[in-house]
Amino acid sequence: MATAERFTGGGVLRKEDPTLLTGQGTFVESITLPGMLHAVFVRSPFGSADIGAIDAEAARAAPGVVAVFTGGDLKDEWAAGLPMAWPVTADIRIPDHWPLTPDVARYAGDAVAVVVAGTRAQAKDAAELVSVDYDERPAVVDVERALEGDAPRVHDALEDNRSYTWTLSNGDVDAAFDKADVVITRRTTQPRLIPNAMEPRAVVVQPVPAAGDFTMWSTTQIPHISRILLALTLGIPESRLRVIAPDVGGGFGSKLNVYAEEAACLALARRLRRPIKWVAERSEDYQATIHGRDQIQQLELAADSEGRILGYRVKLLANMGAYLQLVAPGVPLLGAFLYCGSYGGEAYHFECTGVFTNTTPTDAYRGAGRPEATYAIELAMDALAREIGVDPAEIRRRNFLPTGDMVASPGGLQFDTTDYGPNLERALDLLGYDDVRAEQAARRERGDPRLLGIGISTYVEMCGLAPSQVLGSLNYGAGGWEAATVRLLPTGKVEVVTGTSPHGQGHETSWSQIVADRLGVDFDDVTVLHGDTAIAPHGMNTYGSRSVSVGGVAVHQACGRVVDKGRRLAAHLLEVSPDDLEFEAGRFAVKGVPDRSKTIQEIAFAAWTAHSLPEGEEPGLTADAVFDPPNFTFPFGSHLCVVEVDGETGAVEILRYVAVDDCGNVINPQIVDGQLHGGIAQGIAAALYEEAAYSEEGTLATSSMLNYLVPSAAEFPSFELDRTVTPSNSNPMGVKGIGEAGTIASTPAVMNAVIDALSHLGVTELDLPATPERVWRAIRSAKGGAA
Amino acid sequence: MRISVTVNGERHDGDVEPRTLLVYFLRETLGLTGTNVGCDTSSCGACTVLLDGQSAKSCTVLAVQADGSEVTTVEGLARNGEWHPIQHAFHEHHGLQCGFCTPGMMMAAVGLLSEDPDPDEAGIRLALEGNLCRCTGYQNIVTAILAAGKKMRAAEGEN
């Protein structure tokens, strides 16, 4: 297409902003309907308990209360349990998961009853009056303990707490280890993290009882997927359920799920024939919304005497929590191919076991499997560098995959386009790496208590989820395509319908840029519709950094079809062959005779009046496209972090953070940088601050924002960003995706920096997060004192 | 209890339960839903408004405590259809993504700039400690506040 790129690459401000900046956004909590009732759930305070008698009489008599239901009362509402869409192995154990548990509470927060009242305050007051006879059982929260023979069982119906074991092998890994000069063995732990999208979850359901229709507004990333699965859970015909994701206040994977409260509100609306609303309080959200990470990783590297890696062996234990949420078993699989990072080698073996515990279920959290993998390999690379006695940058240069197209990775995948060396050098230059190393040496020389450390993370990630065939081979329950419609309206304005479902990513803006350039129309003449199953009939929604490289590409392809049809109509009106026309800047012109032309807006009007169409053409200038990518995309980059550790207190301060990322072609640099800022911050938070903790009895100790530290602006420096551009060959736009890269890259960059700061003291291992206490203990223990 | 509160320049008289928080009075009684609720522990600052000119978390104030006060919410930031400089700056510098924390973040910024018209980056970061954002990593929020402060000082100089 010859159309000049006027909008792609920058120069526009977000279309989403005016609504949000003036308080006119429609978040679910702001939706109020006539006759609406409010639901408040009664949740188990125990990690594990048999549920005895539930006395709801006092609650039923409380002011404003319309109904109280227990799990047993609602049993007949469910045509199926809550869905799990990724049975990763044939013998995976999938326990029953009811929206309200009728018999046993399996984590603190498992819902056992629900109160419905005229106001939220009334429902909350009455929920306090519901008396549940709990018989507490021993709980298990730790994955290793959960696999021991005498561990308490989370599900009585299963013989133990193992859900599945999944393996992946490529090459002869034993042979690689047999000939190794050096073997690095590391055990790392991934703390459990609470996603903390700023908007707590909420649901509103409006029934039309006479028609059997339901409309559900939900704080979801996946309105289309939810519609299908909730229809199955409730036994509502899919065509009778409309799901709307209005303005959604962040997700990070926590809203990539089908939740008990969505099913329950649908059931309550069906039973009570009234609109129902539920809004989570933050502390409730901490228990009732999925958590992320929580894995124990064992990684072994086999290398030659120069530090060139020969083979990888990986063994994971992944905490599933009490039940299997939507894609939880598949989360480790998304990392399974990336424990070899951006590096080469001959052989690879990966094994993961999913384990049940009495904790809030885990599932995809920003990066989903890939931050864990990247953390393990990037820390192991630094360990290998120390073992061989070379600089961490050098060990990476020696092991980078070659530059090229469709480059085979030891994990068995083919990476779309690679060019890792220049990217790292750019980052090292930007930081002034040699100068910082010299400063580090000088400080060590003079015994400065302000210890300087440099961390490197040369990540590659796998996104653009995903080729449907590959998902099928991994036993995922759906495809990975995305759909789009582009309509030229009779007045020449453009309406775009996308199956992606943004919640902060700015799709309205980026998709408008794509369309404005492809059709040669004005950016402001494009309107993007999304997040409503009645408006966008098909969609696979937004997660896994897939939106631009699958959904954006679908928009791009629909535009191509609009231009193709427009060309045929223009040729008919101009009485030339379609081949005689060129399309540029929104105008079909006869080659060599530029004043014989029609604008795309004129063609749109002619297509609508349909007074004179070519033989066999239908009225209207509109096109659909569905893009199913042939491969994942593999963004990469180099993140460098400089920290100063106070040798006396263990406090860590980030002095500089340099990131050079490569996400292929960039539609909107401001949005890409914004995604990186947020992603890097979330990864730093995991490195230094965040960790969800349970007591042995299964109580969530980090129960609110008061004791789970979500960092503020005061905890971060400004990040220094740059990029290289290596277009992907997985799609015609050369785009890759950037939503998760920052989070994937930054946790190991920070931890490598902290360990580097302490390495001359003999510290080589440190657990996440690197809190002052942990760092202080590591220093003390290295110095020979009691840890 | 009977209260009278001036919100965005308009006086509202109303009956509230004594336990009603100011944020729910704004959202549910007055229908001003721009002010969001992000937590139950006064940690996140999404509900920040100006109370008699100073930024305050409206989830920590009872509606009855605001009796006789002047409250400014995000809906009252623009004057005569013209955006406040902080709104322009957040737009130009991409200081928001999902937009949920944004109303509170902007009100906190306006409160800061009224106390200190020329804060440096470190001062802004410290002043925003009570306002959480999970999308932006705060970088463009800080940039936007620096830019808004500059514009407001320039405008002040002209007057």
Written overview of the protein:
The complex is a heterodimer of chains A (787) and B (159). Chain A is of the alpha+beta class and 787 residues long. Chain A has three domains: 196 residues, Aldehyde oxidase/xanthine dehydrogenase, a/b hammerhead (Aldehyde Oxidoreductase, domain 3, Alpha-Beta Complex), CATH 3.90.1170.50; 326 residues, Aldehyde oxidase/xanthine dehydrogenase, molybdopterin binding domain (Aldehyde Oxidoreductase, domain 4, 2-Layer Sandwich); 147 residues, Aldehyde Oxidoreductase, domain 4 (2-Layer Sandwich). Chain A has 20 helices and 28 strands. A seven-stranded mixed sheet of chain A has the order 3-5-1-12-9-10-11, with helices on both faces. In chain A, β16 and β17 form a beta hairpin. In chain A, α10 crosses α11, α16 crosses α17 and α18 packs across α19. The N and C termini of chain A lie far apart (65 Å). Chain B has two domains: 75 residues, Ubiquitin-like (UB roll), CATH 3.10.20.30; 74 residues, [2Fe-2S]-binding domain (DNA polymerase, domain 1), CATH 1.10.150. The longest helix of chain B has 20 residues. Chain B starts with a strand and ends with a helix. At the A-B interface, α1 and α18 of A face α2, α3, α4 and α5 of B.
Shape of chain A: globular
- Count of separate structural domains of chain B: 2
Number of helices of chain B: 5
Main sheet attributes: strand count, strand direction, barrel closure of chain A: 7 strands, mixed
Q: Could you give the order of the helices and strands of chain B? A: EEHEEEHHHH
Strand content of chain A: 25-35%
Major sheet characteristics of chain B: 5 strands, mixed
CATH superfamily of the largest domain in chain B: Beta-grasp domain
Percent range for helical residues of chain A?
25-40%
Q: Which residues of chain A form runs of ≥5 with pLDDT under 50?
A: none
Count of beta strands of chain B: 5
Biggest chain pair interface? A-B, 55 and 55 residues
Strand content of chain B: 5-15%
Low-pLDDT ranges of chain B:
none
CATH architecture of the largest domain in chain A: 2-Layer Sandwich
Overall CATH class of the largest domain in chain A: Alpha Beta
CATH architecture of the largest domain in chain B: Roll
Strand arrangement across the biggest beta sheet of chain A: 3-5-1-12-9-10-11
